[in-house]
Design goal:
Among the domains are: 163 residues, Rossmann fold; 92 residues, Helix Hairpins (Orthogonal Bundle), CATH 1.10.287.1770; 190 residues, no CATH class; 39 residues. About 2% of the residues have low confidence. It is an alpha/beta fold and 716 residues long.
Length: 716
């Protein structure tokens, strides 16, 4: 650690403010990737401080290092294998006793560590007075107070980290588990010595082997001489289990909790007069058995109405910009395939998708506010009764809520569930949540076929339908594919926080930039492919000689020029142009494919154009909109959604009912290729990925058929 480059790993419980502190330290100098071999998000950032370069890693939030869930395993392996120079353990001061359990486990890893006592202001308001010096003595590590959402204490934290790095001392923490256990720890430790590489803490390895930690046992067994260590540890574990009469993992946990309780009572004094916090008072309303669910639905309804109404204004600005760009480029390109490709395919297709960026950002703004204020956990609690009825619990609802932003982190979020059955069911139903990629489809169709006063409610109904279908399918999967006992619901209710502007903007920037990157890569490529399949073959056989008909009309008009007939002549030419473009489109590769699959979707009220749009949506849902823009352009560059909306409403094959059914189908069927790839990696199975694709398409057809037939029966 004598070099000027230091690696700092931030560890802590979920909702401890860890990511907020990460953002405070790194600012905009951060990036998001994945840990090697797993789809767990890895956030890294950089900071120059007092002549040193700090590389900061934000570890997955976790309550312990027992490695039951993938998050726990990744966090533990990142510390053990990557060997960061300094660990910074973020503690939620308002929930100090529970947070200390992870702190003890981190200390046992024998690495230099600093404790950040975060949310100290919240603890004080609750009447909790924490003695920092006493906590430092009990844990043997420096303690720094921080208030992450106000960016207080960040500089002090970095200065302390730099000081600990300068000392270059190994962490001197040892917790006494009692004479019987300590004797066996020493016994396993003595045979581990000389077998395990130096980078692994021997006492920690011994404890984990006695706890019957499969990952650690397999790790040690792979060392030369490791089988003897495993045999010694197994014999020691059996003797201790006979002595205590229960699993050693439980015994170790009880001893840690006892130690944590002692530390907490030693360093914290509580003012009992402050018996009820503001969070408690708010929760009496928001988590009320009667009011909780209506309030949640009301919040979601408000969010989607705001997304539609407020986002319409900047969307129009972007549309006008794309239209201007298309017109400008048209001036400098001669008529032909190149002009059509650039104006119709690239600017028209990509510009159409980019115009929905404001709605995407507003949606992520709403989700970030729900997460950062602490309401997301309350929503899970409110939904627990419904989730329990289908064999899951409220904790499974958290990944589903995240799915409103993107299905990929929603599926990845299922790894926080300890029960493998819950994890699989959550992965399979998470794609039913309306991700932001579907929002352009909803926005386009609601604006075209429904009045502004109903548009937000129509979109809200689609999102609610996704939740209802997820609940129904979860019940079916839990009953027939993954039967078993329901796990009890246990989840932390974090104190309400005022989100920081930096945190909100960072969240919006990360997701917005990913959306734009997709527009510049996948959607660009798909738009070019769609343009090609729509434009070729060039030599389509027409039912009429349109060029001759237009020439004859021009000649007749020029021979007998009459101002009153000008409008009639223009209308006749426009009609011939539209008929020619329609026949050209029908004879294209896209048209041929669309007519091939039309019999499969005709019962849903869809024609071949919708079929082509839905098919291209398998790559990314945003492409449904750009494909429609190309298919309905009928020879003109549709650079803004207003013109496309007009084309859609004048199509006799479309109606408000068909538009709604199309939104329903877009909601349910396979979200995108990237999501399916994540399902494959999270389940480690091609079988379950294929099942996810097939069941979602079948469900989309069945539900859409039902909605269409019911709508027809009711006269819509």
């Amino acid at each position: 650690m004598a070099t000027n480059n230091l690696t700092i790993a931030l560890a802590g419980n979920p909702n401890s403010g860890k990511t907020t502190i990460f953002n405070n330290i790194t600012g905009a100098r951060q990036h998001v990737g994945n840990y090697s071999g797993v789809t767990v998000e890895k956030r890294e950032g950089f900071r120059r401080f007092r002549g040193r370069n700090f590389q900061v890693v934000d570890l997955p939030g976790t309550y312990s290092l027992t490695a039951r869930a993938l998050d726990e395993l990744v966090a533990r392996n990142a510390i053990l294998n990557d060997r960061p120079d300094i660990l910074v353990n973020i503690l939620d001061a308002s929930n100090l006793e529970r947070n200390l359990y992870l702190a003890v486990q981190l200390l046992e890893l024998e690495q230099p560590m600093v404790v950040a006592l975060n949310m100290a202001d919240v603890a004080e308001k609750m009447g909790h007075k924490i003695d920092d010096q006493a906590l430092t003595r009990r844990l043997g590590v420096p303690v720094v107070r921080t208030v992450g959402n106000r960016n207080r204490g960040t500089e002090d934290l970095l200065a302390t980290v730099a000081g600990v790095a300068q000392e270059r001392k190994q962490q001197p923490f040892t917790m006494d588990y009692g004479p019987e256990i300590e004797a066996k720890i020493k016994e396993v430790w003595s045979v581990l010595k000389g077998v395990a590489p130096e980078k692994y803490p021997l006492r920690w390895l011994a404890i984990k082997m006695l706890e019957n930690d499969k990952e650690v046992i397999d790790l040690v067994a792979a060392f030369p001489g490791g089988e003897r260590v495993r045999s010694v540890a197994e014999n020691a574990r059996k003797k201790l289990q006979g002595l205590f009469g229960e699993e050693l993992e439980v015994v170790f946990a009880e001893r840690r909790y006892y130690f944590v309780g002692e530390v907490y009572r030693d360093v914290v004094s509580v003012n009992n007069e402050i018996s009820q916090t503001t969070s408690d008072k708010v929760d009496r309303v928001l988590t009320n058995r009667v009011l909780g669910l209506p309030i949640f639905l009301g919040i979601m309804w408000l969010l989607f109405n705001l997304v539609f109404t407020i986002g319409a204004y900047p969307q129009e600005w972007i549309e006008n910009g794309a239209k201007w760009l298309g017109d400008f480029v048209s001036l400098y390109l001669t008529d032909g395939d190149l002009k059509s490709l650039v104006v119709d395919g690239i600017i028209g297709g990509v510009g159409m998708v980019v115009s929905f960026l404001p709605q995407i950002l507003l949606l992520f703004l709403g989700i970030a506010l729900l997460e950062d204020t602490g309401y997301m956990a309350r929503a899970a609690f409110v939904m627990d009764r419904i989730m329990k009825s289908v064999g899951l619990h409220g904790k499974s609802f958290i990944p589903l809520l995240v799915g409103f932003g993107c299905n990929i982190p929603a599926i990845m979020g299922a790894r926080t569930l300890e029960n493998p059955r819950d994890r699989m069911v959550t992965i399979l139903v998470a794609p039913l949540m309306s991700c932001s990629a579907r929002l352009p489809v909803y926005t386009l169709l609601t604006a075209a076929f429904f009045s502004e006063s109903y548009a937000g409610t129509v979109m809200f109904s689609i999102y609610i339908l996704g939740i209802v279908l997820a609940v129904i399918m979860a019940w079916i999967f839990r009953k027939f594919l993954f039967p078993g006992e329901t796990e009890p619901f246990a989840m932390e209710m974090p104190a309400y926080h005022i989100p920081t502007l930096r945190s909100i903007l960072t969240h919006m920037w990360e997701r917005g930039s990913l959306y734009l990157k997709k527009a510049g890569t996948i959607i660009l490529a798909a738009s070019i492919l769609v343009w090609f399949f729509v434009s070729y073959p060039a030599d389509v056989s027409y039912s009429k000689d349109f060029e001759q008909l237009k020439a004859a009309s021009d000649a007749a008009y020029n021979a007998n020029v009459n101002d009153g007939e000008a409008d009639e002549h223009e209308a006749e030419i426009a009609k011939l142009d539209k008929e020619q473009a329609a026949e050209k489109l029908a004879g294209s590769y896209a048209g041929q494919f669309g007519h091939l699959i039309e019999p499969l979707i005709k019962p849903l009220g869809f024609d071949w154009k919708i079929g082509v749009s839905l098919f291209t949506g398998f790559s990314a849902k945003e492409i449904v909109v750009s494909t429609m823009g190309t298919l309905y352009s009928v020879g003109a560059a549709e650079d803004d959604t207003a013109e496309l909306q007009e084309s859609l409403t004048t199509d006799p094959a479309l109606s408000p009912l068909v538009a709604y059914v199309l939104m329903v189908f877009s909601l349910i069927y396979t979200p995108c290729i990237a999501t399916m790839a994540v399902v494959r990696r999270e389940t480690n199975s091609w079988k379950w990925m294929s099942f996810s694709v097939l069941y979602s398409v079948a469900l989309a057809w069945i539900v859409s058929f039902g909605v269409y037939r019911i709508g027809m029966f009711l006269g819509y």
